[in-house]
Amino acid sequence: MSVAELKERHMAAAETVNSLKERLKQKRLLLLDTDVARYARSQGQTRVSFGLTDLVCCRTLQGHTGKVYSMDWTPEKNRIVSASQDGRLIVWNALTSQKTHAIKLPCAWVMTCAFSPSGQSVACGGLDSMCSIFNLNSQTDKDGNLPVSRVLSGHKGYVSSCQYVPDEDTHLITASGDQTCVLWDITTGLRTSVFGGEFQSGHTADVLSVSINGSNSRMFISGSCDSTARLWDTRVASRAVRTFHGHEGDVNTVKFFPDGHRFGSGSDDGTCRLFDIRTGHQLQEYNQQHDDNEAPHVTSIAFSTSGRLLFAGYTNGDCYVWDTLLAEVVLNLGKLQNSHDSRISCLGLSADGSALCTGSWDSNLKIWAFGGHRRVH
Amino acid sequence: MSLKVEDAVEYSFAMEYHGPPITRELPRALPINVDRIPVASVVSPLPFSDSVSLPVVQPISAADIIGKKLTKDFKLSSSAAELLTVSPTSVIAFESQNNEVSEGSYSKETESSVSPSSVNNASLESETENRNSNDICTLSGELSSDFECCNRNDVLSGVNERGYSSISHDEFVGGVGSSGALESSDSFDKSRKFSGSLRKSSAYEESLDFNESNRTDWESNESVLSVDCLSSRVSSRKFGDENQDSGGGDVRRTPVVTFCDIESDDENVNEDYSHSRPEVVRMKKEPVAKVRKGACYRCMKGSRFTEKEVCMVCDAKYCTNCVLRAMGSMPEGRKCVTCIGYPISESKRISLGKCSRTLKRLLNDLEVKQVMKAEKFCEVNQLSPEYICVNGRPLYHDELVMLQSCPNPPKKLKPGNYWYDKVSGLWGKEGQKPLQIISPHLNVGGPIKADASNGNTQVYINGREITKVELRMLKLAGVQCAGNPHFWVNEDGSYQEEGQNNTKGFIWGKAGTKLLCAVLSLPVPSKSSYPCGEKISSSIGRSKPEYLDQRVIQKLLLIGYSGSGTSTIFKQARILYKDIPFSEDEREHITLVIQSHVYSYIGILLEGRERFEEESLNELRQKQSCGTTLAGHDDANGEETPYSVCPRLKAFSDWLLKIMASGTLEAIFPAASREYVPLVEELCSSAAFQATYKRRHELESLPSVSSYFLEQAVEILKPDYRPSDLDILYAEHVTSSNGLACVEFSFPEPVYDGDADSGDMNDSMLRYQLIRLQAKGFGENCKWLEMLDDVRIVIFCVSLSDYDQFALDGDGNRVNKMMLSKKLFENMVTHPTFDQMEFLLLLNKFDSFEEKIEQVPLTKCEWFDDFHPVISRNRSNSNNANHPTLGQLGFHYVAVKFKRLYSSLTGRKLYASAVKALEPMSVDAALKYAREVLKWDEERPNGRLSEYSTYSTDASSFSH
Fold first, then answer.
1. Interchain contact A203–B (C-beta under 8 A)
2. Percent of chain B scored above 70 by pLDDT?
């Protein structure tokens, strides 16, 4: 078979694939006769209403000197770790808004950070293509810096996201620019499994985000620059369980719904979407129309404990609170008093669901909580 | 009390006010009732409108300030008001919202209350009187808020000079901004009033679904939270409109008076400062709220006996309940959130980084440590160089750093005027005898003046007329001082008379002298320069870079397609600019890497050997079969080709190949090196290996650098091998192979460099960070690039010799490597992050390019198909220096190609330079060129950039 012939056949095959994909999309649209919002409306659901003081900024965590890129809460206690362009991880006590640790990183270009389930250590990763673990209890060296307790190296591209496997201090899943996700064993520092990469069903572009199912920690979701999200089973590294299409831009963030049967995603196309992992269908699109066609990208999302609210941070500094049922914006934290001055790059809900933390490029983190009073009608 | 009333009468203000407030309200101090305030406002409008102007003028007058030995100056600045409002923190902002809101209704009253008090205070001369008046103020109802501030000042400024309070009072009064006081206190009142009902209503709280599970944490944390929502509620309910339009609210904010705070022992200096060098004047923050003496500035509760934490900037005091709310997360230590970003009050410098009990009780150890660290080391809290005048010239930032980080720095450096004798290291306050002997030869400040220490002895040391005490010391130390000699004294105490070249003795040579100096409280040189200085300097040495780096570090991003030599340039930079280019650990690691590389090179050669052996065997067989048709296969085994090896080596090579195939080479080899060295040695010297080595060009997988290492394979594989810098330079994959590596450096003092402006003193202080990124594995869309938006220049590296090389691109097509480089270049240049970024193109491997272009035409790459070197006619005399070589022409051509591409994409100009990465000087020149580009970039606003670059002019003039 000549090269030309091969090429021709390849072209033809690619075309077939594309047309099939298109058909699949059409079919999906056809089957998608309703979405959550329409159904909820037909059921007479009314949207969540927010009073003026229902969500107020009650803490501002100042201390970073660069853009904040990532933050994470401890499962217990009210501590936060944040990673910033200034090359530092800061561990905050969210109640006193004080720092407990400021960790100077060997590589300043950090993109992600995570708190271990026990709260004993933090992990971070970035352009150095490594995931570094810091034990918060270890002694500082003579310069007052916390030493790296473990380096997970093996990625061939930047580490864009990392999350500890719930209830396990020894396992961690990272997402990387090398199109793979990796499950690590921290005690040995070795890769337990690699998801994607050379395998056919892996992502075909940088993976930007992972989220582990809270109720079944074997399952996790990854979002990628190939504008898909994929569901993985940690026991089956060879292929993705399911691929979720729908977004028209890089999927910047994915987050499991509290019940573990759904997940949300946020993308460069300016939308958030809700997918069902059992059917593989898109349940709802959360899209705020903008006058100019340049929709701000979604940078980060988080669900409230009940799942009724979806918090989404946008590149223009907005932070919408979506009513997940009715797909309506009920509040824009970006327009509240004391909101961030710049892009909201990361956000997360505390483990008990009582507070929301947002991190922004204005180098601050803010904690939003219930204002303590609700008007009685 | 009657006495106080009398006092009040003395000062005209009481007269004006005496009506309702004083008589009725005397016993009531703070807090002011909302109801009461309107009373004051009624009084205000008429009588004081004209007197307002008076207080504004008076406090500024220098005579007044000097007369009272005060060091305050102030100016009215609306920009400072903006600064104030910037604070993003919740608490204060809520309150200030309130302030704004209330402003409308109360502003008039504020003015009125202001002016009388100012008149009063202006006439205050003595401290006692001042005290009295303060007392009155406290007692006088409506006025109280204004006077509280003066009271407070009085109390808080105990550390400061006395009388401070009176003046600062003046200032307050004079300034329009003092309105803040009244407003905030009244807003507090309001909120308190509301609090009762709101607390009750909180029983009806309905929790949001997202905090159903527990909301205790957030509420349990002090009343603060509730205060927040209270105030926000107040404002939202009453002034909903303003809330909607927060922008409008900001505009309405009144200007606030800020005070230039220059503290020093000498008030004359202050005059000078404030007049001649207005640009260095600092803003002094004053607390927003004014409260009763001893009370917390936030909750207005407590007495002077309750423990409080003080703001390092504005002196505001907060009780334990309020500290955390008022000071937030303390990114710069103990400062109110509104004071963040302001320099600390110099009087508090002593307590900088010293934790109070209050804080210790509130926070855990780790938190306290972080706060103190931040307080001590954050940049804004550092001593400002402008405040330190050495030999009559205020210091620059670099000089201060030098002064503080020298082995023997001045102790307890405070703002002020100093003289410094660079030769002997003597250091003292201007007009006074020496205080200390610090490290000599520091290039700080101006030249020493003869009257620096205000001596009148006519005896000079290093050009300074010494004081009487010094003269006495000299005499007692046995120095001949007859005839008003001029001495030169060195740092070791050796002295000589001016104009003579013989050392006459050592001033501090005798033990008695030191004792004498101690008695006369004159300094002696510290024995070793360390004992006293070490602790300070080490802490400074550690802390300095932290905030210094962020300030002056210039980031250079080095990027290029794989194989373009970025790693070589990076390594070269390390070797060039670092004292220790590679740490021991790194060298160890590099050794292992190089060794395993060598094994793999050998493996590739052995593979080649097998292939060659087979080929030549086949040839032989063919020959044989041609020659003797029936020659048996039996003979074949016995055949000797040049590539055959003895069985022992054959076994070794088979084993090595097997390991290589299994991919475990790196795991096994470096460790097992020792036992195989003899074998390898034997192998390398074998004829077969040498024969293969000669044909190494036929082995495609063998990198070109391998010959460098294979030549010395035996040496390298020895266990005690330590790679030289050159080895490291040549070695592949020794810098962190994935992703990003960076090195910080500063260009050494120019020695060989003839650049005119590189002698600039700031140059050596500038630090650069070379960031090397491997584009491989970083995806097509380069999303991560936005993390690098703080780099100053992108150095894009292209391997010139790549024009005939091919590589597989993402789709598996065979593409010319130059085209891949071009594509990456386009991606980079058009990336939004690098929108306005300068680009420097380094055309690397110029050396091999020069060789290659003689053999392979440049047109091999489709992008360069219109390369028609003009030189071709003159080939014969290419030796002539005037005629560029083909290689140079090729370089210019490629540079122009990239320049055109760049300007078509961005409309700007690309800088280009040829580099030979293996030559240190070449890399040095290239990085210096990058530095120049940065400099031009800085100068650009001053005028259109002219053609500085020899490279670029050359290259752009070359066109066809």
1. no
2. 56
- Does B79 carry a binding-site annotation? no
Residues 773-792 of B with CB under 8 A from A: 773, 776-781, 783-784, 787-788, 790
With CB atoms and an 8 Å threshold, state whether B213 touches A353: yes
Judge whether B567 is annotated as a binding position.
Answer: yes
The pLDDT score that the predictor gives to residue B146 is 39
**Selected residue with higher pLDDT from B434 and B500:** B434
Q: From CA A305, how far away is CA A354, in angstroms rounded?
A: 9
CA angle A115, A266, A116 (to 5 degrees): 10
Helix (H) or strand (E) holding B471: helix B468-476
- Nearest CA distance, B790 vs chain A (angstrom): 9
Query: How many other β-carbons are positioned within 10 Å of the β-carbon of residue B488?
Result: 20
Distance CA B554, CA B744 (A): 9
What DSSP letter does each residue of A76-120 carry, written as one string? STTEEEEEETTSEEEEEETTTTEEEEEEE-SSS-EEEEEE-TTSS
Structural contact between residues B709 and B684, judged by C-beta atoms closer than 8 angstroms? no
- A322 band by pLDDT with thresholds 50, 70 and 90: very high
| From B11-25, B750-764, B783-797, the region with the lowest mean pLDDT | B750-764
Task: Please give the Cα distance from B335 to B341 (Å, whole number).
Answer: 9
Predicted model pTM:
0.68
* Maximum distance among all Cα pairs of chain B, rounded to whole angstroms: 141
| Closest to B929 in 3D by CA, of B838, B846, B850 | B838
DSSP, res A236? B
Query: Which backbone phi and psi does B858 adopt, to 5 degrees?
Result: -65, -25
As for the ipTM of the complex, it is: 0.81
Does any CB of chain A come closer than 8 Å to the CB of residue B380?
A: no
Pairing verdict, β B486-489 and B494-497: antiparallel
Residue B466's pLDDT is what?
83
pLDDT at residue B29 in the model: 53
Report yes or no: B786 and B835 within 8 Å, Cβ to Cβ.
no
The yes-or-no verdict on residue B77 having pLDDT over 50 is no
Q: Quote the CA–CA distance of B110 and B116 in Å, as a whole number.
A: 11
- B555-589: b or e for each residue (b if 16 or more CB lie within 10 Å)? bbbbbbbbbbbbbbbbbbbbbbbeeebbeeeebee
Partner B, chain A 8-27, Cβ-Cβ below 8 Å: none
Instruction: Please say if the pLDDT value at position B255 is more than 50.
Output: no
Instruction: Report the percent of chain B where pLDDT is more than 90.
Output: 0
Comparison of pLDDT for B411 and B928, the residue scoring more: B928
Strands A88-93 and B505-506: unpaired
| pLDDT at position B376 over 70 | yes
**pLDDT of A202 over the 80 cut:** yes
Instruction: Say whether A95 and B207 touch across the interface (CB within 8 A).
Output: no
How far apart CA B526 and CA B711 sit, in angstroms, is 57
DSSP codes joined into one string, B312-355:
TTT--EEEHHHHHHHHTT-BTBS--GGGTTSPPPGGGGGGTT--
Nearest CA-CA distance, residue A279 and chain B, Å: 27
d(CA B600, CA B373): 50
CB nearest to B370's CB, from A99, A157, A308: A99
What's residue B410's pLDDT?
A: 80
DSSP B20: I
Report pLDDT digits (tens) over B665-683: 666 665 666 677 777 777 7
The per-residue pLDDT for B279 is 39
Whether B472 and chain A come into contact, CB under 8 Å, resolves to no
Dihedral angle of Cα B24, B26, B31, B35, to the nearest 10 degrees: 10
B74, β-bridge pairs:
B259
What does the DSSP assignment read for B48-94?
Answer: TTTTTHHHHHGGG-HHHHHHTT--EEEEEEHHHHHHHHH---HHHHH
How confident is the model at residue B127, as a pLDDT?
43
Count of CB pairs separated by less than 8 Å, A with B: 230
